[in-house]
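User: Before I run my own analysis I want an independent prediction to cross-check against. Here's the chain; please return only the C-alpha cells and, at the end, one sentence I can use as a sanity check.
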Amino acid sequence: MIIRTTPLALVLALIATLCCFQTAEADSEWQFGGQDYGSFGDFFSSPRAPISRRDLDLYAQRLDLTEDQLHFIRDRYDALITTYRQKWLDFAEQRTDARYTSQMSGDWEQMQTQQRQSRLEQQQMITTLVDSFMDDLRIVLTPEQDALWSVMERDRLRRETLTKFTVFNEERFDLIECVSMLDLNEDEKASVADTLERYAQTLHPLIQNRNRRT
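Assistant: C-alpha cells:
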C-alpha cells in the first residue's frame, strides 16, 4: 500500500496539497462576493488587519515568548489595530470624497490619480505602523529569543506575502500552512519538521526575489 511504503513526509505533502487545492477553489468562489456600495464602497468595506491575530500567535510561539511578554505585545497589538482602523477610515473617506467629486465633475483621470496616491500613502502608513510594532516586540526579547528573530522574519515574509503577490495559482500553496491544518500528533510533527524547515529555507530567497520584481 502507498501509505505503508511511502515516507510520511511525502504522504503528508500530498494530502496537504490536496487540502490547499480545495481551499483555493473555495477562495476563488468568493473573491467577487460582497455588497456593492457604489461611490461609498471604500467607506463601508471592512479593513484587513496588517497583522492577523493568528499570525501574531504564531510569531509569539516561534519566539517562545513568556506570559509577561505576551501580555505586553498583545496590548501593543490592540493599540496597533485601533490606530490602523482610525487611519484606514481617514483614507477611505478621502477616496470616497474624491470619487464623489469626480462623479459630479466628470474628471475621472483626476480621481484615478488621487486614488493611486491615497493607496500609496495608505501602504506607507501600514508599513510604518507594522515596523513600529515589530520594534516594540523585539525590544522585550531576551538574547536567546532575539537569536530566533531572523527565522521569525522569514516565516513572516512567507505568511504575509506568498499569496499577496501571487502571479500563478500554484504560488498560493504554502506547504507549511497546509500541514498545520492537519491533525498531526507530536511524533508525526517531528517526522516532517526537517522537511518543512528545508522547504522554508528554499522558498525564502525565491519569495524575496519575486517580491522585488513585483
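Sanity check: The chain has two domains: 38-142, 162-214.
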